[in-house]
Amino acid sequence: MFETIRLTTDVVATTPAGRVLLIERGWPPFEGAWALTGGKAEPGEALDEAAARELAEETGVRIDPADLLQLGTWDIPGRDPRGRYVTVAYLAVVPDDTAIAAGDDARTARWWRLDGLPEQLAFDHAAILAAAFRAQAADVGTAT
């Protein structure tokens, strides 16, 4: 059986003060829900470049793709109601005073405190955020 698989990236953008950047989706699925920035990789585009591009398009935050830390791959069938989507998620740590501006597919963009995140996030973004927080905690625990 033939199955179309789409490749996407997502970005968990955080600040040293412990805030995380989310967008309010402006289109289905999950229209109006809060989500990480992300989207489809373009043909011939490296995944870290796709992640950096999507972050800039949706929030105005620009980051060098080399500064992204790959968190992992999320590929469970059914994670996206539109079909089979596989995402590679990245972590970006940006300065506390990073300005944001909703653009492209985002209705709004907002910095959230980690202890005040929305109860429901789009797709499996809560699991991706949890992985990012574990990666950051491990990094802090190994810093000298």
The CATH first-level class comes to Alpha Beta
Tell me which CATH architecture applies here: Alpha-Beta Complex
Number of strands: 7
Most strands sheet: 4 strands, mixed
Overall SS class: alpha+beta
Low-confidence stretches: none
Order of helices and strands: EEEEHEEEH
Shape, per Cα inertia axes = globular
What is the fold named in CATH at topology level?
Nucleoside Triphosphate Pyrophosphohydrolase
Main sheet: strand order: 4-1-6-5
User: What name goes with the CATH superfamily?
Assistant: Nucleoside Triphosphate Pyrophosphohydrolase
- Give the N-terminus to C-terminus distance in angstroms: 52 Å
Q: Beta-strand percentage?
A: 25-35%
Average pLDDT taken over every residue: 94
Quick structural gist:
This protein is an alpha+beta fold and 144 residues long. The protein contains two helices and seven strands, in the order ββββαβββα. The protein has one domain (5-142): Alpha-Beta Complex (Nucleoside Triphosphate Pyrophosphohydrolase).
Task: Provide key terms for this protein.
144 residues, alpha+beta, Nucleoside Triphosphate Pyrophosphohydrolase, four-stranded mixed sheet, three-stranded antiparallel sheet, 2 helices, 22% helix
Description of the molecule:
The chain is of the alpha+beta class. It has one domain: Nucleoside Triphosphate Pyrophosphohydrolase. The protein has helices at 47-59, 125-142; strands spanning 5-14, 19-25, 34-35, 37-40, 69-74, 84-93, 106-113. The strands form two sheets. It has a four-stranded mixed sheet, with helices on both faces. It is globular.
